[in-house]
Amino acid sequence: MRTVLHTAGSRGDANHGWLHSKHSFSFANYYNPEKIHFGVLRVLNDDFVTAGMGFGLHPHDNMEIISIPLEGDLAHEDSMGNQTVIKHGDIQVMSAGTGVKHSEFNHNKDKPVKFLQIWVMPNKKNVTPRYDQITLDPVNRINTLQQILSPNPDDAGVWIHQDAWFHIGKFDLDFTTTYNLKKEGNGIYAFVLYGAFEVAAQKLEERDALGITEIDAINDSFEVKALTDHAEILLMEIPMQL
Length: 242
What we know:
Elements: E1 2-6, E2 12-15, E3 19-23, E4 41-49, E5 54-60, E6 64-71, E7 74-78, E8 83-86, E9 90-95, E10 100-106, E11 113-120, E12 130-135, E13 145-150, E14 158-159, E15 165-171, E16 176-179, E17 186-194, E18 197-199, E19 202-204, E20 209-213, E21 222-226, E22 231-239
Parallel strand pairs: 13-14
Antiparallel strand pairs: 1-20, 2-3, 3-4, 4-11, 5-10, 6-9, 6-11, 7-8, 7-10, 9-12, 13-15, 15-22, 16-21, 17-20, 17-22, 18-19, 18-21
């Protein structure tokens, strides 16, 4: 097992006034040759959008795009005809495929919205664009890992065109669980949302991340332990081969 630590302070920082975005990987004007991607995980943006502001209509293709609201409400509109609002507890996915345009705005006029936008490179190109959104109960992630994404349409959470599994857990102080790899050859990108954790014997503070690779699917399960109360973490298991 090998690990790489990405501290919160090492992320790219883009402050546009209405938008304050932290980039875990190279994005827009932020470029770090050592942080282009982690396996098929291409983008992890931690976005803060002021009241009533947002991203105008813009295109995407051949990317699996996942949005996870952390606070506030996000309004979505796209060229497939979807007009929705996503809230904390919702998970949104868009398979851009052959091409789609969408916009995202803070739905609230009196408070900011905070959300994660994640891009995963697909295992199939030029698929028909699709949109999905589900509501999960955050209570079901207390002291357990709640699956929010998988490659299987019949499994828990949303699904994408990739052999990836995402889980969110919200743990009490000292609660410990074990994560077992779903598919041999995959890696894990652990991202702390709130509080502090110890993951695979590495201490992580809020918004720190740990990439874990070369995992032996039989012998290399690892522990995730909360070091603070109400600590919350996102585990992303993704293929390491592009």
